[in-house]
Amino acid sequence: MIMIRKLFVLLSLSYSALAFGQVKKIDGTLKLWYNRPAENWNEALPIGNGRLGAMVFGDPAKEQLQLNEETIWSGGPNSNITSESGAAIPELRKLLFEGKFEEAQAIADVKIFPKKNSGMIYQPAGNLFLKFDGHEKATNYYRDLNIEKAVATVTYEVDGVKYKREIFSSFSDQVMMVRLTANKPGKISFSATMDSPQNGVLKIENGKLVFSGLTSDHEGEKGQIKFDSQVKAVAEGGKVALQNNTWTVKNANSATVYVSIATNFKNYHDISGNAGAKAASFLDKAVQKNYATALAAHIKFYQQYFNRVKFNIGVNEAVNKPTDQRIAEFATGNDPHLTALYFQFGRYLLISSSQPGNQPPTLQGIWNDKMLASWDSKYTININTEMNYWPAEVTNLSELHDPLFKMLKDLSVTGKETAKVMYGAKGWVTHHNTDLWRITGPVDRPYAGLWPMGGNWLSQHLWDHYMFTGDQKFLKEYYPVLKGACEFYLDVLQEEPTHKWLVVSPSNSPENTYVPGKRVSIAAGTTMDNQLLFDLFTKTSKAAEILNFDPDFRKVLKTTIARLAPMQIGKNSQLQEWMHDSDRPDDKHRHVSHLYGLYPGNQISPSRTPELFDAARTSLTYRGDPATGWSMGWKVNFWARFLDGNHAYKLITDQLKLVGGRIEGVSTTGGGTYPNLFDAHPPFQIDGNFGCTAGIAEMLLQSHDGVVHLLPALPDNWPTGQITGLVARGGYVVDITWDNNQITQLKIKSKLGGNCRLRINDNMKFNAGKIPTAKGINANPFYETPQVKAPLISALAKLNPVGVAASKDYDLKTEAGKEYIFKLN
After folding, report:
1. CB count, 10 Å around CB of 500?
2. CA–CA separation, 685 vs 100, rounded Å?
3. How confident is the model at residue 101 (pLDDT cuts 50, 70, 90)?
4. H or E stretch including 212?
5. At how many degrees (to 10) do helices 645-655 and 336-353 cross?
6. Spatial contact of 795 and 607, defined as CB atoms under 8 Å apart
7. What is the pLDDT of residue 807?
8. Which segments constitute the Glycosyl hydrolase family 95 catalytic domain (predicted)?
9. Under 8 Å CB-to-CB from 789, ≥6 apart: which residues?
10. Residue 375, CA atoms < 13 Å, CB-side half-sphere
């Protein structure tokens, strides 16, 4: 029997309530835990409050917190565009249309190169060290990161005394806190000091230990970020002293160390802030609060986001092993909880590195210990920054998208200069990198940098946010960003000579080459460019229609869409990556850019475009599974969109391969996961964590194809489980419980109302015919599916023999704010 109840609160089942083969003493809490201190940065544990980050090492005798603040960057306000930047563009277009690809590349390498900088570097603030004399021989050691509370803990024993540290970066108080306790009075004694690789001075000021620093110069730009790191120790009992640039605490019952960091940064063109006053303001307020109250406020703030989604596919005795050992054994063992932990760790990282009003996470989130980080730890926007936000909407963290949107608004301003100077165009543009100062010109060599699509791809997130929230106020606010991006491409599109298609030229298919044996990337009309243009023009037109804006502009966009180059199937039955059929079946490049239209786009579908769907799968099969960490995360999403849960799970297994660490036989190279669950590109890049979290969500719920598809790519390894709180386009919050690969309970909360079209794979046995239908109502009130439509039944019948699950659709008419509960036989 199916029961529908309105405004019915369904309590989520706890881990202990689900019979997944638990044994006694199993702790199903979401913790990363270890039985030894971190030996290096990739074993340390990350804490963050969106703005302040630290890596906690956990050594009993000498604790280290490696410190970051999100606006500590080299250089200062600047533009990296010069009048010579676009001088060769007309010549490149001519050569490309003549088929002289190597000549075009050679000219680009000489004439298209930043005469100024390639972007600034995200840099560390320094380190806090706490020294505990006599704790070198600690026993019963344990450290963890509890991602249900956003608190790191270290415990151990010395001479019969049990010591405990609690460390967190407070969301509510904007400082980091280290709480030191023992099970006997008078046993807390330590010294605390700081250092930094930055230029600056360590001093005592106003009863605080202060490091005042100035960031470094880089590529001709003077370092202009001034920052203050301020530390104060407060103890209960014992003695506290501040002298010789060191805090000393002796024989206290307990103590708390506070760390506050702030900079003079206000925005990308204003650095007039007072770093010292800002840091002091946070610190002075924090030390006045009761520690227990401060901890509770921090946890409450964090859990308002984290607790929205629960994911349980089983807990067994594997959780009793240290996390690095679990990673090392994952491929050969039975540890479903590790997948859930990894999924939720991605959400933890997004909450901890992307709070409203702050900066977006960089290539390394807010965690970086190097002055000259790999790829400058900035924003690489030919996939990596976008990937950082793939989990935001679907895993119920929509508000955390805000920093990306604010950066887009900035880029739509700074990108006007690049559009005008480099291309002679209206609107705005940015290329494949940006930074705190919102540069928009090409960086690095043209091989990667001459790609004017970065702003386009980022702009897709604006429409995606609207699709999940239905927020017309937001759409109105950001419509000028979408329109400005369109205006640029309308000005720069070129008519290619063979088919008279309108294409972007010059460009590239990010970081890949197409002439065998040659480093030739400069191209015209790449497939990804065409897909991005189709999406941008279609979505902007739809936004204008919803807002009743710009009827003439909408007509121009629709006319232009009809002239864009289509996706093509090549001689090897693959989806072509380039306008010309230049794909190589042996190409194993980490970027699979031409499948953007599959994910995160929705132009390729088993029901609407079965031939392209099959060609895309052929392309991915050629490309293969081995890859860097972030690329494997992307491929999890691809295989989920191919409705192949077992292959997606195989990629998760590849991703959860231990890299580094101190377990015998562990790999030290190749993509995978570090002992602290950070993605190993290598080195660490946070996008792999975010991409895989999004991919796991995509295996359980999809909503890009005009339907809400339940458990579309469930692997054999997850026969029983529960996911609650995922969000589908149209504003539907979805909870699913399943057993023996069958849905047993479903809850849908409709935020916006409208018809919710549910899609269930045939093998789910969803009591066919018993769900009330509402025929004639559009599947999604905010989306009109683009591209051609194909008969669903015949398309699926054609594809079913090669692994696409057959499915059935059901309509459910919903009202805003109501919940609908289905208990299934």
Report:
1. 9
2. 36
3. very high
4. strand 208-214
5. 70
6. yes
7. 74
8. 291-700
9. 608
10. 22
> Of the candidates 630, 622, 666, which has an alpha carbon nearest to the alpha carbon of residue 651?
630
Residue 160, judged by CB atoms within 10 A of its CB (0-12, 13-18, 19+), counts as: exposed
User: What is the SS3 assignment for 419-455?
Assistant: HHHHHCCCCCCCCCEECCCCCCCCCCCHHHHCCCCHH
Indicate the SS3 state at residue 130: strand
Residues 295-319 have pLDDT tens digits of 999 999 999 999 999 999 999 999 9
The tokens of 824 are what?
A: 């299934």
Report the Cα–Cα distance between both ends of the chain, in Å, rounded: 7
Q: What tokens appear for 170 in the block?
A: 């407070």
Residue with tokens 């009992």: 237
pLDDT of residue 8 exceeding 50: no
Segment among 110-114, 460-464, 560-564, 611-615 with least mean pLDDT: 110-114
Tell me the three state secondary structure of residue 157.
strand
| Residue 610: φ, ψ to 5° | -60, -35
What H or E segment, with its residue span, contains residue 810?
Answer: strand 807-814
Would strands 754-761 and 708-710 be described as parallel, antiparallel, or unpaired? parallel
Stated pTM of the model = 0.93
- Dist CA 365 CA 381 (whole Å): 14
Count of C-beta atoms within a 10 Å radius of residue 559 = 10
Tokens of 379: 């924003």
Show the beta-strand stretches assigned E in 45-148: 45-48, 52-56, 62-69, 126-131, 139-146
Sole residue written with tokens 């005394």:
161
At residue 193, does pLDDT exceed 80? yes
SS (H, E, C) 240-280: EEEECCEEEEEEECEEEEEEEEEECCCECCECCCCHHHHHH
Q: How many other C-beta atoms are found inside a 10 Å radius of the C-beta of residue 590?
A: 20
Question: Is residue 158 pLDDT above 50, yes or no?
Answer: yes
Domains, in order of start, for the chain: 45-74+128-307 (2.70.98.50), 311-320+329-351+626-699 (no CATH), 721-823 (2.60.40)
